[in-house]
Amino acid sequence: MNQHVRFYPDIDYRAHPAFRDLDVPVRGDDAIVDGMIEAVDLALDALHRERHDDAALGQAFDNGPGRRIAELAAYLDRTTSNERVRLLLSRALADVTGELLEEAKIRNDRHSFNRPLSSQARSVADDLKRDGVHICRLSEVEKKKLWELCAPVIARLRAAAELNPKIRVAESMPRYAGVGVRLDRFFRRSAVLDGLSAYFGSNVTFTGFSLEYSHNKQDWWQNCYADVGMATSKTVYMHYDHGCRNPKAIIALSEVTEENGPTGYIKGSHSKPRSNFIHFLIKSIDHRFYDDYIAGTQSYYRRRFQELEYRREFLMLPTALQACSHFGEDITDDTELSSDLLKDEIKVTRDVGNCIVFDGDYGIHRGALVKSGERFVFQVIFAIEPDPPKIGALKKRARAIARRVLKGE
Q1: Does residue 393 form part of some domain?
Q2: How many helices (H) and strands (E) does the chain have?
Q3: Of 48, 270, 348, 367, which is least packed with CB atoms within 10 Å of its CB?
């Protein structure tokens, strides 16, 4: 595997039982595409090494990685014969250009980020840097109070599941109402926000959350490759999230065991070697495919891999683009890759903790695969948001005034 131009994990789809007999010709231009991918990554590396002001950053991006991406887009447009594949790539490359510019802004902020850290926040940041994940625990008293506050939402989710038991059900909740305020206090008290800020080298805020209900009648994650006689794999639903600036937390309100869908995280997966550009492009391709999605009678969530016509189109891509951000079921059991991922998986059951904070954009994770019983969890989204200069100056002035007041000046 050429790690510099590949997605992690690198799966040979042409050898996969669901793809190997589709008789789709190999493109034959992997060396050209791989070279163009490497050029994008080299341009990104050069951009990230230097500090730019806001105006200069956009120009530097356009002249560096942006130009290289445009060259790749033009090449793929000329050399891809299938119209639907060509359109998908065009939309995904436009999307990834925006994503990588946003990531460049985040990395650019790291050059000047400096915030004093408590020992607790340093511990959170160290966990994230080493493993990509930090696990902590809400008290039983706090969990009970949150359960009481969520009682009306819990009832609505159970009712929705009764109407359509096979699909995922969740409800967004107000960020600044009672539950959101309590969660915000917990994230501050446990130094999660400061630890995330240190890990990303930028200000991190608690942005929003939803309550998700999972139960054992749901089948949205099962039987992708039943047509070729493959059982659901042991690594099913392992995935990355789409984006570059939304770290996550999962907080379990239920008592979670191995049977009712614990959140799993592949320790160290956030730092595995890969092409930075391809990591984002694959997620953008997956995201853009859903623009064409038409819900059918089946509830499985990856139509692109379940249906033969889309499998054939998948093999029309250059090898470096034959990847998926939600790849878990594409890994065959009893392989070294499967064993390695399962060996490094941390499962957050009630014995381990009830809150997991992680880098879901770069780290592999999964959850909600309920074998028996039910599971209620908060899906929490944070955002990487550098302090605007004026707000930062106002905060600094307010702190100075407060110090003077406390000193009696």
Answers
A1: yes
A2: 14, 9
A3: 48
